[in-house]
Amino acid sequence: MSVQLSPSPTVSVSEAMTHDEYLGALLKQSEGQQIRIHAEIVGWLQELRQRAAYDAARQRMPTRQDEEWRFTDLSELLATQFVKAQTVVPRQSAIAPLTLKEASQSRLVFVNGVYSPEYSDVSALPDGVFVGNLAQLPLEDTYEAIKYIAHHDGEQEVFTALNSTGFPDVAVIWAKKNVIVETPIHLLFVTSVEEHPTFCLPRGLIVAEKGASLTVLEQYSVTAEDCSDRPTQHPYFTNSVMEVFVEENARVNHTLLQRESGDAFHICKTAVAQSRNSHYTCNTLHLGAKLSRHNLDVWQKGEHTETYLNGLTLIGREQISDTHSGVWLNYPHGTTNHLHKCIVDHKAHAIFSGKVTVPQKAQETNAAQLNRNLLLSPKARIDTKPQLQITADNVKCTHGATISQIDADELFYLQSRGINADSARNLLLDAFAAEILDRLPLPSLQKMVAQCVSCRTYE
Which PANTHER family match (predicted)? Predict the structure, then answer.
């Protein structure tokens, strides 16, 4: 097997500097990013880098004048100058608290976006599934993998293009035809903070071939002595992209856990393509980061697909968390159900924008979308925008949003049963979050996130 450490080609950013100096600086930082790959695909990588850099340089950083960003203030991000994160090997004590017992031998770890074999162990996985980085993938399979990487709709979006110009590695999870993987796979992306603000560009690819089945936990966290999602006075920027391809009759249960430091900026893209008769579930949990944005896009590529999206955002202090989802149902007999919940405390700000598109040919579609929100402070803020765009006439589609405080009657009822006010409040918050937590596939993950909810809401 021939593997080569390949630098990215040098890309002129003069045009980007003219239109947006900040974006130009990030592009310049991503130049020369080394990646360990097969020598035979270096040409493909160079072409991808050049195309992505061109797409990014023609754009500008989003502002609140852009409709899709009008509730999200990027001023703090734009006020911070970042340098490219270095390849490091953190201490075992920093990684151990982030692991899960169900995936002790099915764990893939990346530090600052680069594969870390020291902390990865996939020995419990069966034949027929590959879990590793792009350099480990056999060459004949690599030729197939590059047909998927950066080929999803929306690749030209500015942050996605920025990732493509300089990702330092690619995490690959690939289940062959009819392979059922019962062991959950833990894909752990860890940032090691440095004295100067850094940015990294994690990249991942998940492929479930025809009839295959996978359960994947994608986690973003930081090396920390204390709670990983608390501020550490060390800002950094994570800009990640995960591409998921669910082929005919395949099933993927995908959970995204974001527990970045409270000083972090986290912008991630999840791009999903579903073939005929496929089943995809995505559970998203956003707890950390000073500012986070999740772009979740699902494209139906065949009829009879099932898509279930469950989300929980739990923020406080002055955090900003933005969830933008889009589901494009382009074929008949599609089913999608999206439930997203937000718990917002102190001066935090949560944004939800969900769009379901049902064109004329997508007859007999069944789509539901609901955003439920709890404000725990008079200064907390929610902006919600559920949307349905329907031109088909034989469909069943619903959408809605609720914003409320803790119900006074429910508090009174619990207190009348001898429960004090604080315990009654926390019991109601636990019940509100439990509807999402109960849908998580790993018991230890349920317990860990429930403890986070308790810790954050009992303060």
Answer: PROTEIN ABCI7, CHLOROPLASTIC
Query: What DSSP line would sit under 148-194, residue for residue?
Result: TTT-STTTTSHHHHHHHHH----EEEEEPTT-B--S-EEEEEEE---
Place of tokens 């060459």: 139
Spatial separation of the C-alpha atoms in residues 247 and 177, rounded to whole Å: 9
Q: Is the Cβ–Cβ distance between 321 and 348 less than 8 Å?
A: yes
Q: How far apart are CA 334 and CA 304, in angstroms?
A: 5
Cβ(458)–Cβ(428) below 8 Å: no
CA–CA–CA angle 52, 57, 63 (5° rounding) = 110
Q: Where are the domains of the chain?
A: 90-408, 409-459
Over the stretch 240-299, which tens digit does the pLDDT of each residue have?
999 999 999 999 999 999 999 999 999 999 999 999 999 999 999 999 999 999 999 999
> Phi/psi zone of residue 138: left (φ > 0), alpha (ψ -120 to 50 degrees), beta?
beta
456, amino acid identity: R
Residue of 350, 315, 351 whose CA lies nearest to 453? 315
- Predicted TM-score (pTM) of the model is 0.93
403's tokens: 């914003």
| Structure tokens given for 424 | 């009654």
